[in-house]
User: What shape does this take?
Amino acid sequence: MSLFDKLKSWFAPAPPGGERANAEVASNEDVGEDAAAPQPLETGPRKRWSAKDDAELEARARTLFVSGNASDAMALLGGANLLARHETTRLPCLCAKCLKHAADSPEVDGVRYVRDFVVARYRVLFYWTPEELAADAKQVRASMRSALRAQLRIGPQATRAPGINPFTGRPTP
Assistant: This one.
């Protein structure tokens, strides 16, 4: 039964004599159309990414960075989503294209900066931090990771102007 016939049966009275329309038969013109479609790479259920996976990825990449093997660390982090867009500032850009060529510790106006990164929800955020905060790097990373998780949870459009309740005339919380 076609969709049109179903709608007719809902809204129109039954045809005289109780006759029903013939059911539609699928045509053969689309058979085999999807035969050449690529198959998904993963055949099993997709593994859910967890905070533990984030911590493991970050620890492996950080170990590679500390050992001076930045290219392998970048290759390891290359599978994750890099949260950066190209920006022209006084500090080197940290987008995917420029990150490979960015200095490890540039100096701007007499202040040296150190590149660092955090991983949250399989997303990598690189950022510059003043070298004076190197002793507090763990706290800075925790703060950046927390802010990144909050932004990913809420989304960029979460902020909105307060509205007015039309029934009470008061601002909505």
User: Anything to note?
Assistant: The first strand starts at residue 81 and ends at 82.
